[in-house]
TrEMBL record:
Stretches assigned to the RNA polymerase sigma factor 70 region 4 type domain: 113-165
GO molecular function annotations of the record: DNA binding; sigma factor activity
Domain of life from the UniProt record: Bacteria
Pfam family membership, one: Sigma70_r4_2
Keyword vocabulary terms for this entry: DNA-binding, Sigma factor, Transcription, Transcription regulation
Organism: Catenulispora acidiphila (strain DSM 44928 / JCM 14897 / NBRC 102108 / NRRL B-24433 / ID139908)
Protein name, UniProt field: RNA polymerase, sigma-24 subunit, ECF subfamily
Annotated CDD domains: Sigma70_r4
PANTHER family linked: ECF RNA POLYMERASE SIGMA FACTOR SIGM, RNA POLYMERASE ECF-TYPE SIGMA FACTO
Protein family according to the UniProt entry: Belongs to the sigma-70 factor family. ECF subfamily.
RNA polymerase sigma-70 region domain: residues covered: 18-83
GO process annotations (BP): DNA-templated transcription initiation
Amino acid sequence: MIGRLTQEELADFTAFAQARQRHLMRTAFLLSGNRQSAQDLTQTALLDLCRSWRRVRRADDVDAYAHRVLINAFRTSARRSDRERKALWRKASEAAGSPADGAAPDQSVGMRLSLLAALDRLPPKARAVVVLRYWEDLSVEATAAALGCSTGTVKSQSSRALARLRALLGDGFATTDSEHWEISYGN
């Protein structure tokens, strides 16, 4: 695997990984909903990219290729752990309810938990489209390339996913204020 790469290829991959790891981690967090899973997904994606680096580095859009690898790792993980993940979100939602002392919960934290819980209720492909289009701010074309689908599929998935999020979150949640869309996975 890594032993087969030349020094130049290994240096090229290392530079790519160092430059994009945080970005991939953020995307993985938004897809998976928790830091540990995001770390696992990022590590899996980077390992897969390293194994195929000779081919990957010749791709027209290495970032789109990396997103596709990350999305595929997420889909595989989601199929395996769907029940466990849903149980975790139910517990997080219950814990984020009204505090015992009667004080109002922090609105920003509550909004983030609500948004993450709503994202969790989307099918994996729809969640991937929303994350890439609206958090990563990729174009329709770049999202299609990352997911390996047509631009029409991205548009229809975006429309359906946003309608589902609006239904789950209610009209009062909709905002154009980018700070509400910023999710931190913690450091």
